[in-house]
Design a protein that fits this description.
Elements (H helix, E strand, L loop, with lengths): L1 H85 L3 H20 L2 E3 L12 E8 L8 E6 L2 E3 L2 E4 L1 E7 L6
Parallel strand pairs: 2-6
Antiparallel strand pairs: 1-4, 3-6, 4-5
Helix pairs in contact: 1-2
């Protein structure tokens, strides 16, 4: 009977050891699963950040190309204006004016808008001051005359307006 008892005790000890080993193995597997889950989540987050960065870079590249093309096209509005002033034939001038207006509408459709500056305070961020104009027509430091129109693409300056800034006549003059 004692031998039977020892056999039962040994069997229980073996089962206990096996149970402890299995629990340790389960703990290791749970730890590995947790590490792999974290690694997977980090990888997904890294990929999402990469995707967003690529989208931002693509958008910046598209905007840069659009800005470059529109800047080149804007010069044609100036050419139309200069040509219109040189034309003697009234009907040709009207035709050129229609083309210029349609071209301007096309640019506006793509987000280009002229900078309004006449009579407003001089803004060196959006305007290029080419000189002063002595006048009483507007306040000193305001744009008195627009020599060449400036243009914006949304909030991006494509071309600064070229302006003359008002100055009061000095008493000594």
């Amino acid at each position: 009977m004692e031998e039977n008892q020892n056999s039962t005790d040994n069997k229980q000890e073996t089962e206990s050891v096996q149970l402890l080993n299995l629990r340790a193995e389960i703990d290791d597997l749970q730890k590995q699963l947790s590490e792999e889950t974290n690694r997977h989540l980090r990888t997904r987050a890294d990929f999402e950040n990469y995707r967003k960065r690529i989208e931002r870079e693509d958008e910046a590249r598209r905007l840069s190309v659009k800005k470059e093309i529109l800047t080149d096209l804007i010069s044609f509005l100036d050419y139309f204006d200069q040509a219109r002033k040189q034309l003697q034939d009234e009907s040709a001038a009207k035709g050129l004016e229609i083309i210029a207006r349609q071209f301007s509408e096309l640019l506006q459709k793509h987000g280009v808008r002229p900078i309004k500056c006449l009579g407003l305070p001089y803004d060196p961020e959006a305007q290029e001051g080419v000189g002063f104009l002595v006048t009483d027509q507007c306040e000193e430091g305001c744009v008195a005359e627009e020599i060449c129109c400036g243009y914006m693409l949304n909030d991006i300056l494509l071309k600064p307006a070229r302006v003359l800034v008002a100055r009061r006549k000095e008493e000594n003059d």
